[in-house]
Each structure stands twice: as structure tokens, then as C-alpha cells.
Amino acid sequence: MHPGLGIKKLDRYMLRNFMGLFFLTFLICCFILLMQLLWMRINDIVGKGVDIWILMEFLFYALLSVVPMALPLAILLASLMTFGNLGEKFELTAMKSAGISLFRIMRPLIIFIALVSIGAFFFSNNVLPKSQVKFWTLVFSLRQKSPELDIPAGEFYTGINGYNIYVRKKNTRTGLLRDLMIYDYSDGFQNASVTVADSGRICTTADQKYLQLTLYQGESFENLSQEEQRATRTQQNVPYRREMFRRKTLLIEFDTEFTRYDESVLNDQHVSKDVRSLVHSIDSVGMLAAEKSRQQSEDLYQKHYLGRENINPFVYPDKDTVFAALDVDSLYASFSVSDRQRALQHAIDQARRYKDLVQYNSILLDDYQRYMRKHAIELHRKFTLAFACLIFFFIGAPLGAIIRKGGLGAPIVISVALFIVYYIIDNAGYKMAREALWPVWEGMWLSSFVLLPIGVFLTYKATTDSALFNPEVWIREAEKIRDKLKKLYKENGQN
Predict the structure, then answer these.
(1) Residue 491: domain span
(2) How far is it, in rounded angstroms, from Cα 153 to Cα 177?
(3) Average of pLDDT values for 31-60?
(4) Residues 389, 411: Cα–Cα separation, whole Å
(5) pTM assigned to the model
(6) What is the mean pLDDT of the chain?
(7) Are residues 291 and 397 in the same domain?
(8) 80: closest CA among 455, 389, 406, 388?
């Protein structure tokens, strides 16, 4: 057999074993993360009565948003299972005994993961910004969508803005509501009104813009305005108006149509930009912040530094020369005691005002800094995703070759544990960067800095056939240490 043919068979064999597990684990990870996302957004979806196609669109964009988290986890789990299966079936041992190194066995997968990492970067740069705009537009639109009308019996219904409705009993067949109580605070709690009725019906108008409540045999109580109270105080001191009715119709604004937000409101947000736009925004806002800072410094120096604003520029055109020739100590010593106290108090008041001015200027600049930090975080995130794919492969593949356990048991436990560690470190670095406690690049690359040495260490141990996770080896090493300690103890005891 030609040697090149055997090598190609090995490459195909490794790719076939890995890619099946990779796509399967990727789908499972996407499903789990999607369920987590839906659970977080459950209040924005449930009870809104939107069309099924709107929900399908929401699920599609939500699925795209979880890909950056699912991809590294799927690579870690698939590589761990692939090499764990090869080790458990002694196929990895047979390959090494034939003179094939671990790096040669991993080579087709390294090339494949490198292509996946490049694809992950282009996905984050080109696809994810557009999908995030669509996703958040849908989220904001669903939040403003009025909930589907379903008034329960025996509890207050708060799904209508400005109203609380209580129904004691409800006939689901005829739609008749019994013992109604309606609190109307749409004009504020000071102008609230209460309506009670023996029965009633509720429906939406033909244009789907209002709710029509038809009430029977009831009464309403409404607070009077200040003008109405003054007008009626001469006759009777009544702070509210009472009305009894046999039949009354109320119209409540309740738009049941789904109105999609304009996507242009997110155009300047960091989630909607690619690398070029992010760099351009950071540079532009950085120049504005630098110019604003320079203007604030000049204004503080020229107008508010040691009373410069009180010097007549026509008499003293060069203010620096005036202050250089001014002997402050001699001038202060020439004052009387009362003048010194007034001068000190005036200086303290001036310093406090200037401190407030500096803090106000700092707040103005902080808006620019926060804007740039958000964009810089998003910029680094596009690269850390691609790099995380490589790191997790070089953790999962050698780890699977070392532990030699396939299936779904040990690989899932180890993968979830490693991914939790990665998530905690990555989230901590993100918060440090967001709060400006660390430079942005340090916070966003923290997880990579921590996990990269682990991947290098595991790869080295796997290539040297180290029994890193063999309990017998650890037991033997522990026994050696124990014997050495006993020997030292005996020697010290004899001495």
C-alpha cells in the first residue's frame, strides 16, 4: 500500500469520527443555551398572542445569538469524546505503536478547527451584528405588545396599563363576568376611580385598539379635582363623586396589534457593528473626548485658576507674568486677622466650587469613556471567540487521550466543569473591563490567558504519554512522599 494512501485514510477516519460528534454536540449545546435564553425572556413572550411566524423569527435570531457560547463548548466536548473513544478502544495506542505521533493524528482536526475558528470570526463580524439588531428589535417590540386578554377569576388582573380588574366568577361559555371591581389609576393615583358592578362583559373593538367593558347594576367612586372640591365645599364637604348606574360602557385603550420597532434606533449600538465600524466609532469618540478634555482644561486654567478671571486683560495682557511676580505669602501676611479668615473662607468656597466643576466635567467625559469601553469590549469579543475555539480543542483532545474514557459520562462532566470555569473567568474579566477597573484588552483576554497554559500543559503531557489522571500513579507518588517523610522523621528523632 502506498504510504500516502494510508495517511489519507487516517485523516478521513479522524474527520469522520470527530465531525459527527461535533455537529451532534453543537446542536445539543445550542438547544440547551436556547432554552436558557427563552427562560430568561419568558415574560416577553408568554401571553402576548403574537403570530406563530413572529415567534419563529424570534427563535431563529435567539438561536444565532447563542452560537458564540455553544461553539467552544461543542468543540471541547466533541474533541474530548473523540480522543476518549480512541483511547478506550486502544486505537490511539495502535496508532502510536505504528510510529504515528499524536500531533500527526490531530493534524486534520487542527486544520478543521482552524477553519472553524476563522468561520467563527466572520460569523461574529458579519452575521452576529445583524442578527443582534433583529433580535433586540423583536425583544423591545414584544415588551411593548399588550398581553393577550385573559382575565382570571378570583385574582386581580394587571395586564392593562393603568388598571386593575378583579372578577369573582367567570362563565367561560357565555363570557359573563360576575362581581367586578375596577381600579382606574390611568390619570395618577391622586385621580383614581373605583367601579364595582354585579356583572359585565368585555370585548375588543373592531379596530383592535380599545377594550369595551359593558357593566350592569353598579356604582363608581371618583376623586374630585381641587377646583371641583372648592366649588362644592359651600354646599357639602364631599371629596369624591359617586355615580350609580344600571348599564355603563367603558372604553380602555388596549392596542392588541404587534408593532415592530424601527431597527435604525440600534444603528449606533455596539452590538450592531462589525470590526471596521467599531474601530471607526472608537477613534471618532476618542478624538471628541480628547478635544472635550482639552477644552475643559483650558477653561479651568484660564478662567478658574487663582482668580485669573478677575484680572483685566487690557491692563495685564500676560496673566502668567502677573502671577509669577505675585508674592502670596507676603500679601497674606499683610492682612489683618479678620481679613485672613475671610480670605481663607473665600478660598475654601472657591476650592469647593472648582471641585464640583471638575466632578461635573468628569461626568461629561465618563459618557464618552463608557461608549468607547462598550465598543472596545465588543471588538475584542469577536477575536476571543475564534481563539477560544482553538484553546478548547487543545484542551479537549489531549485530555481525552490522557483519560481514555469515551461515551457521554466522564466527557460531559469534565467539559461542563471546564466550561463553567471558563464562563466564570470570562464573565469576571468582562465586568472588570466594563467597570474600567482593568484595561479592556486585559479583561476580555483574561480567560484565554488562563486556559492557554492549561492547553499547552495537557498537550505536552499527552504527547509524552503521561499518566496524569491514573490514580495508581498518584497513589505511588503519595507513598513515596510518605516514605521520605517517615525517613526524615526517624533521622531527626535519632539526632
Answers:
(1) 465-495
(2) 9
(3) 81
(4) 17
(5) 0.68
(6) 79
(7) no
(8) 406
